[in-house]
C-alpha cells in the first residue's frame, strides 16, 4: 500500500495515522448495465427528473474489460453485486456474465424487482449457485407500490418471489429475501410487510430511505467516525469509472478508472487516500459529497434471537434472518457482517437434522 503521509494535501498538525486498508476491496458493486424497467423516485439515477442527467450515465459494460477486472482478484474474492443503478435481470449476456463470476468463486448477490424473472432463469440461478437474491417490494398493496416504484404490479413481483422459492426448494442457494425501504408513502405498511414475509423467505430486510444527500430517519451515535464504505466497497460504473460511494449516481466524485489502470491502483490511489485522510482527521467539509451525509452511522448493530429468527438492527437496516436457513449465509456473502453466533448456527443445524429425521 502506497504511503501518502507526505503528500502535499496532508497537514502535519493533524498527526495523521492512517487506518489500515485491505489489499483489495471486500465488496465490489459493478454496474454491468445502467438500465432499468422502473423509475423509482428514491433512486439516485432513475428518480432524477432530468432525462439528460440520466442519459449521461446510461450504458453497458464491456464484458471482456469486466473479466480483466475480476481476474485481478487472485488472493481474495470479493462479494459482487452486479448492479448499482440498474435492474440486474436486464444485463446483456446475463448468463455469461454471472457464469464468469461463479467460475471464479465469487459470491454473487442480486437486488432485483423480479419483473422479468422466468422459470428457466430461476433454475439457472440455482444451478450456478447464485448466493443471494433480494427482491425489492417496498409495499403490501398495489396502490402503495405505485406510489413508491411507479407500477402497481405487486402480484407479479410476489409471484416472482414464490417462483424463486419453489424452484430452489430445499437447496441451500440462492439465499432468498425481500426488502422494504421505509419512506412517507409506505410507512403505514411497515409492520404488515414484516408480518407478511417473516417465515416465508430466508431474510426480510427493512431499511430507511436516502434523499437529498442524507438519511433523514437515521439515528446517529454522538460522535462521527470515518465511513466504513470507503474501506470496504468499490462502486464501478459501466465505463470502469469508480465513485466514492454507491449513492453517487450522477458521478459527482471521481476516484479513477479500473479499466485504464487497475483495481489496486484505484483502491490505493490518491483520491481514495485523500477521502480517507479527511475522514480520519474529521475534515468532513473537505469531501463535499460526504459533508452532510450520515451514512457513516450504519455499521454498528444490536442482535437478538427470537421466535426462530436472528434479528440484527442497525441505524439503517433491520434484518430478520430465519435461523433454519442460516447455513447459506457465510463466507464473503456476509459482506462485512459478522458471522451468526456459533450457538445460533448450532441451533440451525439441530433443526435441519431434526427435519431430516422427520422427512
Task: Give the helices and strands, then pairings.
Elements: E1 27-30, E2 33-34, H1 51-57, E3 59-60, H2 63-70, E4 79-81, H3 94-103, E5 107-112, H4 119-128, E6 132-136, H5 142-149, H6 154-168, E7 175-182, H7 190-197, E8 203-208, H8 229-232, E9 233-236, E10 241-242, E11 256-257, H9 263-267, H10 270-280, H11 288-291, E12 302-306, E13 309-313, E14 317-322, H12 342-358
Parallel strand pairs: 1-4, 1-9, 4-5, 5-6, 6-7, 7-8
Antiparallel strand pairs: 2-3, 8-14, 10-11, 12-13, 13-14
Helix pairs in contact: 4-6
How would you summarize this macromolecular structure in one to three sentences?
The protein is α/β, with parallel strands linked by helices and 359 residues long.
Explain what you see:
- With 359 residues, the chain is of the alpha/beta class.
- It contains twelve helices and 14 strands.
- Strands 9-1-4-5-6-7-8-14-13-12 form a ten-stranded mixed beta sheet. Strands 2-3 form a two-stranded antiparallel ribbon.
- The longest helix is centred in the last third of the chain and has 17 residues.
Mean pLDDT: 92
Proportion of beta-strand residues:
15-25%
Q: What is the topology, as strand order, of the major beta sheet?
A: 9-1-4-5-6-7-8-14-13-12
How many E strands?
Answer: 14
Question: What's the tally of helices?
Answer: 12
- Can you write the helix and strand succession as a string? EEHEHEHEHEHHEHEHEEEHHHEEEH
The computed structural class is alpha/beta
> Whole-Å distance between the termini?
54 Å
The portion of residues assigned to helices is 25-40%
Shape: globular
- Biggest sheet character: 10 strands, mixed
- Low-confidence regions: none
Output the radius of gyration: 20 Å
Amino acid at each position: 500500500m502506497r504511503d501518502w503521509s507526505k503528500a502535499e494535501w496532508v497537514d502535519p498538525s493533524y498527526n495523521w495515522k492512517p487506518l489500515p486498508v485491505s489489499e483489495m476491496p471486500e465488496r465490489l458493486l459493478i454496474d454491468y448495465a445502467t438500465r432499468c424497467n422502473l423509475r423509482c423516485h428514491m433512486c439516485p439515477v432513475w428518480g432524477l427528473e432530468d432525462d439528460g442527467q440520466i442519459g449521461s450515465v446510461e450504458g453497458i459494460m464491456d464484458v471482456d474489460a469486466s473479466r480483466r477486472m475480476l481476474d485481478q482478484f487472485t488472493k481474495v474474492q470479493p462479494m459482487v453485486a452486479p448492479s448499482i443503478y440498474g435492474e440486474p435481470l436486464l444485463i446483456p449476456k446475463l448468463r455469461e456474465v454471472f457464469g464468469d463470476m461463479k467460475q471464479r468463486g465469487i459470491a454473487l448477490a442480486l437486488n432485483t424487482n423480479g419483473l422479468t424473472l422466468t422459470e428457466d432463469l430461476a433454475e439457472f440461478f440455482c444451478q450456478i449457485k447464485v448466493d443471494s437474491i433480494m427482491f425489492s417490494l417496498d409495499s403490501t398493496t398495489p396502490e402503495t407500490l405505485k406510489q413508491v416504484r411507479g407500477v402497481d404490479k405487486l402480484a407479479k413481483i410476489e409471484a416472482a418471489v414464490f417462483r424463486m422459492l419453489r424452484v430452489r426448494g430445499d437447496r441451500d442457494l440462492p439465499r432468498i429475501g425481500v426488502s422494504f425501504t421505509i419512506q412517507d408513502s409506505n410507512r403505514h405498511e411497515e409492520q404488515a410487510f414484516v408480518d407478511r414475509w417473516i417465515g416465508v423467505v430466508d431474510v426480510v430486510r427493512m431499511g430507511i430511505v436516502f434523499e437529498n444527500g442524507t438519511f433523514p430517519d437515521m439515528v446517529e451515535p454522538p460522535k462521527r467516525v470515518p465511513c466504513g464504505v470507503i474501506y470496504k466497497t468499490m462502486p464501478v460504473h459501466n465505463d470502469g469509472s469508480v465513485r466514492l460511494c454507491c449513492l453517487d449516481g450522477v458521478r459527482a466524485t471521481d476516484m479513477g478508472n479500473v479499466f485504464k489502470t487497475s483495481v489496486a491502483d484505484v483502491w490505493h490511489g490518491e483520491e481514495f487516500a485523500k477521502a480517507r485522510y479527511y475522514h480520519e482527521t474529521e475534515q468532513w467539509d473537505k469531501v463535499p459529497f460526504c459533508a452532510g451525509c450520515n451514512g457513516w452511522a450504519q455499521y454498528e448493530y444490536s442482535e437478538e434471537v427470537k421466535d426462530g429468527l436472528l434479528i440484527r438492527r442497525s441505524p439503517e437496516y433491520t434484518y430478520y434472518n430465519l435461523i433454519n436457513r442460516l447455513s447459506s449465509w457465510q463466507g464473503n456473502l456476509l459482506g462485512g457482517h459478522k458471522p451468526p453466533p456459533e450457538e445460533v448456527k448450532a441451533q440451525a443445524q439441530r433443526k435441519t437434522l431434526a427435519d431430516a429425521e422427520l422427512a
